[in-house]
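Input/output pair, single chain:
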Amino acid sequence: MPPATRGQERARRPLSRLLECARLLAAALTVSSATGAQMGVDADLVQRATVGPPAATAPTHASAVSRTRRAAFEFPAAMHVLWRARVTGPITLEPVVDDKGRIVLLHERGTLSMLSDGGTTSWSLRLGDATPGVSPALLSDGTVAIYNFDDRLLRIDVAGRLVAATHLGLKGKPAALLPLESGGAALAVGDDLVRVDHRGEVVARASAEHTIAELLSSRGSVIAVDNQGEVYRFHGTGVLSPEGSFGRGVAAVALAGKSLLAVSGGQHLVSFDLDTQMARTIHSAAASKTLQPWLALGPKTVYVAASDGTLRGLSYSGRDRLRLVLGDSDPSRPGAALLPAATTPALADSGSRVMLASAGSETIIIEADGSHHRIPSSACLSPMSLTPMPRQRVLLVCRNGEVLALAAARSSATEPATPSQAPPMQTPPPPATSPQAPPAQTAPILPPAP
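Output:
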């Protein structure tokens, strides 16, 4: 072969190899596209999911996925009622609040409403003829998740539009709906647990021996506690691994670091270490008294109330830090009426204060030394919950449909509030006139499940 021909041949070899690689790549892409089409997946579709903690001051009931009932800020020195609003009652479930101050609450036996941070109704959506059995949850992408009474998990956007509805195949009373940093949620209904992804599709299922009492999030994993005090870790694979036991039935559970705190057996405050799986009692009520079924966890103090109206503040090791009797000398109104067991009227701040919404009395802020002062005109006949809002505000929700926003008083920056050792006012002030809100945008009732 002449030298020129041999040079042309050598030049064509890399080109041939390149063309062969291109042909093989095209064939592989063709097979991949065909396989995707057979599976019903568009190979050109890019799916996006928002993950991470929800952008909210209270994305779930009890203010946080740890169920601490704690605000991420210190309460102002003096507070007042910023605005009042009213929805059709009753309200029997705690609301959730996003980082814009928008309030989502269930009321009137099956109505879901959003209020703006100024208290006006943005929209209302009728879910059916019965109220869901568990509070809503705000997910990572800002949508609201609701487990409806007809066994559908609904996802609704901030405009009040139904995004998705998923049948879960569950029966029983729901206990908790927990938003997850993966963008989905975990749900407990009876003794069944499910995890759903960001689209609402079920990705894991498990069953416990007893009815689940609470779901919490710890270090990215889901902790489940049943009503007999058994503690489990619910993995994303569907495995439910036992972690130990409180030793008694529980009525309220919260998480502080690696320790679970629970009101157990009606009379005991018990701490459970998730690492050592050991439980120990750090406080017990007197034989003739019981502990009410709620906890509020400050940075250094656990707040718990007894049936006689006594508020106790305990260190996490069980040492007494605060003891305050909120009763009075009126025999017709015992101190227990100030802290009704049927409500959850407590909220701790990031410092050393706790707020209590006493039935029929003005809301009070209690200092670390036991002194306390009132928030004027904040009386609520039947307090449902205290929920943190943006800008150091607190939302007070009453069972009769009244909603109040508590904020820093104008003079609080220059004139600190004067604490009082007197008990809260027993006669509520005349109700303030609610501002006129624009008419709500009411969406039609959601279609029932087939």
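Residues 31-39, 328-337, 413-445 have pLDDT under 50 and may be disordered. Helices lie at 3-38.
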